[in-house]
Amino acid sequence: MSAFFQDMRGRGLGDPLLVVCDGAAGIIKAIETCFPRSERQRCLAHRMRNLAAKVPEDRWPEFKARATAAYQAPSRAIARDLAGLVKDYEAELPSAVACFMDDFEAAIAHLRMPITHRRAIRTTNLLERLFVEERRRLKIISNAFGEKPVLKLMFGAMIRAAERWRAIRITDFERRQMTAVRQELDQEYEARNDLDKKAAAKELRQNLSSSSRT
After folding, report:
1. Is 196 helix (H, G, I), strand (E, B) or coil?
2. Rg for the chain (alpha carbons), in Å?
3. d(CA 63, CA 160)
4. Cα separation, 39 vs 41, whole angstroms
5. Among 59, 125, 64, residue whose Cα is nearest residue 100
6. How confident is the model over 8-51, as pLDDT tens digits?
7. 3-state secondary structure of 140
8. Which of 12, 69, 108, 115 is 20 to 30 A removed from 86 (C-alpha atoms)?
9. What is d(CA 37, CA 18) in angstroms, rounded to the nearest whole number?
10. Partners of 19 in the beta sheet?
11. In what helix (H) or strand (E) does residue 18 lie, and over which residues does it extend?
12. pTM here?
């Protein structure tokens, strides 16, 4: 997956504000390696399905309401506070609460973005609809006759999908919001880099000191 992302970078892709993914460890690692200046959003559709599988049917409506309130809160600060309501189930439903809290910050990453965009960017549904369209069309084709025809088919499906995505309007105010988020993410990246450099320098000094004593 890292090679795929690096190939896209080599063809001009910069650091997106947000990258949405499921919980596959390889994808998460690749995103964090290849897009260190981007926010990572955990797909909430996948997360809610995982939670539903861990909660008894009679308890699910209440648990779902609390989880949804946190995941779709007005802000990340409020989401963190509302997470406490889900933690109340820890004694009764430990595996469900552990699932809810796992990668929680990534699950609420979309709350940094403009309010009108959040519904579209908190899941991988847009991408998966594209895969459904591709499978639907290939299902009736007995032989694609090579890579190029399949790529043409996918390109056509992406054009049609992009027409639907254009329903997401971006106002001047939202552009300013997104610019502010970009600046915050860049600052956070630089701060992490500084900490890593200081930690590496400290470790080097400790190693040199140990070597000199021996």
Report:
1. helix
2. 22
3. 37
4. 7
5. 64
6. 999 999 999 999 999 999 999 999 999 999 999 999 999 999 99
7. coil
8. 115
9. 9
10. 40
11. strand 18-21
12. 0.83
